[in-house]
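Hey team,

Filing this mostly as a record. A colleague (T.K.) asked me to run one chain through the structure pipeline before their review meeting, and I want the input and output archived in the tracker in case anyone asks later how it was produced. No errors, nothing strange. Just documentation.

Input sequence:
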Amino acid sequence: MSDDPRQAAERYRLDRRLRDAGIEPEPEKTSAPERGSTAAERAAYVETQIQQAIRRGDFDDLPGAGKPLTNLGDSHDPDWWIRRKIESEKLSGLGPPALTLRVEHAELADRMDAFSREADVREALEDFNRRVVEARRQLLGGPPVVTPTVDVDAELAAWSARRRAREAAASPPPPMRRRLRWFRSR
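Output structure:
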């Protein structure tokens, strides 16, 4: 309904003339709540729109209709939707720095073994140390950063030893010389 009494009165007169002529007037369409309306008015409007859509059949034949939601778990998790999105999109590197750096520290040796040059390993280790120190200085909240920095020279020596061991395991053994024996026949 309109807030203007003149419009409401004119609408009433028009409806009355239509009824007198034997024509049923169209019901007034609801419009979106005005700006500054209360939360209850907005909720009522939304609920009305949902009920009308159900009656029209707008929600029929949706994928998954009538099927239970999967992977809800036993406990209430308010962030279930974001966790599911992270899993489905296979996103990584999300979360507070304390946790991501901890995971990265645990996988550091495998990451370093992927490099083939010592300069690349040194650069990656120095970058890791820089990010650990930077995360310790930040006051963003979340869990404290307890990830240690790494000794670059010691890690380079370990990387070099692992690389030599891999190369030794991958290279074929030297061919064995076959010794020919000459037997004397008596």
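Quick notes for T.K.: The two ends are 128 Å apart (CA to CA). The chain has a mean pLDDT of 82.
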